Amino acid sequence: MANITSILKEDRRFEPPRAFAERAHVGDLAAYHAAYRESLEAPDEFWGRIANAFRWTKPWTEVLDWSAAPFARWFVGGETNITDNCLDRHLATARRDKIAILWEGEPGDVRVFTYAELHREVCRFANALTRLGITKGDTIVLYMPMVPELAIAMLAAARIGATHSVIFGGFSATAVRDRVNDCGAKIIVTADGGYRRGQVVPLKAAVDEALLAGCPTVERVVVLSRTKTETAWVTGRDVHWADAVAGVSTDCAPVAVDSEHPLFVLYTSGTTGKPKGVVHTTGGYMVGTAYTSKLVFDLRDDDVYWCMADIGWVTGHSYVVYGPLANGATTFMYEGAPNFPEPDRFWKMIAKHRVSIFYTAPTAIRAFMRWGDAWPSQHDLSSLRLLGTVGEPINPEAWIWYRQKIGGERCPIVDTWWQTETGAIMISPLPGATPTKPGSATLPLPGIVPEVVDKDGHAVPDGSGGFLVIRRPWPSMLRTIHGDPERYQKQYWSQIAGAYFTGDGARCDADGYFWIMGRIDDVINVAGHRLGTMEIESALVAHPAVAEAAVVGRPDELKGQGIVAFVTLCAGRSVSQSNGAAQKMADELKSHVAKEIGAIARPDEIRFTDALPKTRSGKIMRRLLGDIAANRGTTGDTTTLEDLSVLAKLREQDEE
Fold it and tell me: Angle at Cα 322 formed by Cα 335 and Cα 133, nearest 5°?
């Protein structure tokens, strides 16, 4: 990879606010460095002490067994139940009557569950699952909207020792079928539908279609009535949620499971061919998510914490459900879209529910920017004390806007890097300790040993781009790919000897701060120069007219690859081909990129678009843009697209 030039110019530095640091779990860099040093010098004592904060029905005999690397075993021989730690252990404290889940539906309905109430509902549904034939070791699939029952069903499965696999509610029937068959689920829990931008997403209909296509392991389908939509019904197979829990006891003891018992299988988005089910187990995942939730978000008992991710993604698993509940936090959930009925929906809910921690994606932040400052300015956001970002690298301009317009220049920002496979946050500022730089995920958390290397596994000089690897195992790491241990070993542990290969490009600066440059597939080879697409995108978004940009490569006979940029302009800015404004703006943006990075990075083509193809989690699907730029037909899975019409419009523009 080429040296990063435009990002290297970022020299703004923000110290943690003094008032925040004085109350923080980690209040200065010296405390961070001490914890990090201990985690490397005495890892067993370090992780063992953290794990001892939880309840174990049987103590472990060894913190880590790495003898069969890369197949790890954490807290060997220990037995526990994650729901006992997320629910039961809080009931004997003041948290019993504290709000565990605060939920708002897209139509505006609100529901509240205290820890005692959530415990009761989890036990009730756990008993319902048992009555339906689910036992320890079985797998159930959850295909639901963002409603409290989704979290309840996850916890209920874990309570009886079943493994859950949540399938994102935006996936197609074909994707549901493939994932159900891969994990061999006995039961599917779904809903008649969910709400998205005022429309009903027909979930039960998709399940029916998947089962019709062939899911031989499925015995029962539990259906929650959310939208009151009429659905087809198969007598003897389908059962209403309300009927499943009718007359069922609310007393259900948590089933003790081995620390390495599979907690969930989660299929990564955008898969093609055989689904890739990432397997996470119980003990290490529990310790990792709880520890990182406490430190990174500096959780306090009076916080209302909102991670806007859908539970269908790992961010929702770790930082909507398990991590916050293990810490006794109040976690806020929202069902619908951020701009329904108006673009101020998020800010309205933050003001209404007095949200204090807000964790969102850079793509969403750039959308907020495009919609305009007037929307957040209408609402009282003074309850916020901490902001976070997740999902992809954030460009410095979006980071600064987020700090100024949403955080009022008083809230620290934790820019977190991690993956479905890592299970928990790996690199992030600690808000009371770490000085931040816009666009940098900063320093690794204690116990995490990242490094930026070349293709031969050698460390690259400071400031140079390379491949991000992790040198040591960590508790929340994936254990395998479901049913395919060879694929697990080949994909993650064979690229660089002795290291976990993240698949991300990065650089490390002279202060030891990590700058994530995106997936290594998002690298364009222009005349022998490897340029990260994120670098070019960041330069484009730095232009005052640009709200969002996505950069892809296309085949070029002379240079190998040419650079194509898809650009969305800020609100109030528009260009027309008829009067030459589009060409003028394109030339201006090309010159801007050349000035920021160098002539080698000058885009060959800039295409203006009202919207970019994104998943419902907010990630831009650059693979689809690459197909358009190269004049290829669309390839691979498109089921995660939020709005298929965006792709259709881009195709129409391409044909004009």
Answer: 85
The whole-angstrom distance between residue 26's C-alpha and the CA centroid of its chain comes to 24
Integer angstrom CA distances of residue 398 from 339, 361, 403, 505: 18, 11, 9, 20
Q: By the 8 A CB rule, do 122 and 158 touch?
A: no
Q: Give the whole-angstrom CA distance, residue 389 versus residue 361.
A: 5
Containing H/E element for 156?
helix 148-159
Q: Which helix (H) or strand (E) holds 331?
A: strand 330-334
Say if residue 613 is preceded by a cis peptide, omega within 30 of 0.
no
Here the tokens at position 335 are 């069902």
Strand 262-267 to strand 277-281: parallel, antiparallel, or no bridges (unpaired)?
antiparallel
Coil/strand/helix, residue 128 = helix
How far is C-alpha 315 from the chain's CA centre? 3
Say which residue the tokens 């898969």 belong to. 271
Alpha carbon distance 262, 479 (integer Å): 9
Mean pLDDT (the chain) is 91
| Pairing mode of beta strands 99-104, 110-114 | antiparallel
DSSP state of 280: E
Query: What confidence score (pLDDT) does residue 2 get?
Result: 37
Query: pTM of the prediction?
Result: 0.86
Q: H-type helices in 390-481, by residue range?
A: 396-401
Question: Distance between CA atoms of 567 and 261, rounded to whole angstroms?
Answer: 46
For the record, the structure tokens of 339 come out as: 């701009």
Q: How far apart are CA 408 and CA 400, in angstroms?
A: 10
Rounded average pLDDT over 150-157: 98
Please tell me what DSSP assigns to residue 614. B
Determine the length of the chain: 656
- The residue to which tokens 């080429």 are assigned: 2
CATH 3.30.300.30 fits 521-655, yes or no: yes
Among 133-137, 269-273, 280-284, the least confident range: 269-273
Q: Give CA–CA dist 38/57, Å, rounded.
A: 27
Residue recorded with tokens 């003790």: 256
